[in-house]
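Good morning,

Attaching, inline, the backbone tokens for the sequence recovery test we're adding to the shared suite. The designed sequence is right after.
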């Protein structure tokens, strides 16, 4: 609930508690306005107070749609494409392996929402000079309500795993 208080010039204080529910009573996720009107005992109105409230109980959707691997080549570039959907998206970051502290903010790489694809925003992220071995890509989307979805983490059930291998060593000719 939200508590609102007001004090008259004679220091008499009034408090009003406004119940605020996160249930379906307030509709789907979205932005809502909460307006408060107050009148004193003589019918004089105070200025209306308006708050904008974001109801968001849905984490962003993250999909990895494709990735490249480099096998037996000198090209050590990984390319990952994917899609992110959230009406209140705040940021999208990407990193390889366990290096979240070195994550790159890829929010600027997002395309415009595609209405034909459920308003998903596509991205393409490239990493250059990746060392040989198997690497895991992680894409993490956060919305304005701080709800998070991470894709590409094989340790988390239900999320898309993206294991990519860089192999620039040719097989033995034996």
């Amino acid at each position: 609930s939200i508590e609102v208080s007001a004090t008259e010039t004679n220091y008499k204080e009034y408090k009003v508690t406004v119940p605020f529910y996160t249930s379906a009573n307030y509709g789907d996720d979205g932005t809502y306005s909460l307006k408060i009107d107050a009148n004193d005992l003589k019918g004089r109105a105070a200025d209306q107070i308006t708050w904008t409230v974001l109801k968001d109980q849905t984490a962003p959707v993250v999909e990895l749609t494709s990735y490249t691997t480099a096998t037996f080549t000198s090209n050590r570039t990984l390319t990952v494409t994917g899609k992110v959907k959230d009406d209140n998206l705040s940021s999208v970051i990407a990193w390889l392996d366990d290096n979240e502290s070195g994550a790159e903010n890829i929010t600027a790489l997002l395309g415009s929402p595609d209405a034909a694809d459920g308003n998903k925003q596509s991205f393409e992220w490239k990493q250059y000079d990746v060392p040989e071995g198997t690497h895991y890509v992680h894409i993490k989307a956060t919305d304005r309500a701080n709800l998070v979805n991470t894709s590409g983490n094989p340790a988390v059930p239900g999320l898309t795993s993206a294991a990519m291998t860089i192999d620039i060593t040719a097989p033995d000719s034996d």
